[in-house]
Amino acid sequence: MIEGVFLGSVQPMSWKETQSLSVGRQDAGKVKIYSDIKLPVSREGGTTPGALVLWQNEKWELIDESVFQNDLINHYKYIGELRK
Fold first, then answer.
1. Integer Cα distance of 75 and 56 in angstroms
2. Which position has the higher pLDDT, 65 or 43?
3. Is the residue at 3 inside a domain?
4. Number of folded domains in the chain?
5. Model pLDDT for residues 16-62, shown as the tens digit of each residue
6. Sheet holding 8-12: strands in order across?
7. pLDDT for 26
8. Is residue 49 part of a domain?
9. Residue 43 is part of which domain span?
10. How many CA atoms does the CB half-sphere of 81 hold within 13 Å?
């Protein structure tokens, strides 16, 4: 297991945003996580778990990734799903 610290932004997801997702469980909490570094993401049917992000004393597993590399503000947007 790799441990480390990264600087990012965590934001809540609206009900509408969570309903439009095609990944993850409908009954689990979700957040948007923005980072300037690439992180591991779990893939459906895959064997590699996504990175666990500790935020507000909860663990959030990364289940989806969007890449924004436009040379303006390069970043990655992740969906984190609450893990108990």
1. 22
2. 65
3. no
4. 1
5. 888 777 776 666 789 999 999 999 999 877 788 899 999 999 999 99
6. 8-12, 30-35, 75-83, 58-68, 52-55
7. 65
8. yes
9. 8-83
10. 18
